[in-house]
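hi!! sorry for the late reply, been swamped w classes. u asked for the two structures so here they r. pasted raw, havent cleaned anything up. first the sequence of the first protein and right below it the tokens
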Amino acid sequence: MQGTRPARIGEEIREELSLLLQREVKDPGVGFVTLTFVKMSADLQVARIYYTVLGDDKAKRESKKALERATPYLRRQVSQRLRLRRSPEMFFQYDESVERGERIESLIQEIHAAERPAPPDAPPDDDSRE
């Protein structure tokens, strides 16, 4: 279980990175990136940053490359702004949980649509009226 300090530092890093990506990173490859969660190691040396991207697979690939290019700059800025003794190593990882959630939601809606009875004014489907 993650302690309160790593969770707090992770949230601060997420907020700071969001601002940096929005205002200071000029790489057009970053695209529409949303940082969803930062998981810190217990010793605060490693930060796994989970993100989502608005767009298709090509946008995802371009955003991943752009984030990897910007990582040294982002690491330096976060370390300075949060006044951390040691700057954590940052690893960006695509967050698939959003897509999985949307897929599950669509499956549930399909099941509910299939279970609904036909409207009362609809003619019956049997062919006994011939």
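now the second protein. again sequence first, tokens right under
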Amino acid sequence: MPLNDIMIPLLAVGLAEMGDKTQLSVLLLSSRTREYAQLLAGIMLAFLLADGFAILVGSWVTNVIPVHLVKLVSGAVFILFGVMILRGDKEQEEEGSLSPRNAFVSGFSMIFLSEWGDKTQIASALFATEYDPLLVFVGVMTALLILSAMAIYLGKLLSSRIDRKQITRIAGVVFLLIGLSFMLSAVMSSAFADMI
């Protein structure tokens, strides 16, 4: 039934991503900008490329690129973002926001680099082996659009109620912790793979 080909991936991905590191990242980035449309555009382009690619090639990606390498790169990106946020650009501190170009680039790079090997990408690939890939794509992208828009709205709401410097510190620390957890996970999965 064609409706299942959309609804099952939409619900599964929507539930899997809710409260995930990806949505937390979007929320934190949106609290640092007023360029919400640019941020959402960057995020959705990243999801389009990462999850669209996964749907096209199924689970091939995870067989070609070791998951621990993907996690290492993702971890490094989160740590880089955390350091950049904590270090803070004097210009950004004064303005209190990312420029439109930076909002797009930040949203795109954060999601694009962290989404490879993520459960959503793998689930998208697996759904594409079972259901019509085009309908899976529609379901997955709809779920990601809804969740990203909600995270951006929540970030906007938080930034109007909480001191921007406090949000910046929290965002930087959270990004560092996510990056370190990715790197630790990569090292552990690599060590486990070597034992087998």
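hope this helps!! also noticed smth abt the second:
Residues 78 and 178 are 7 Å apart (CA to CA).
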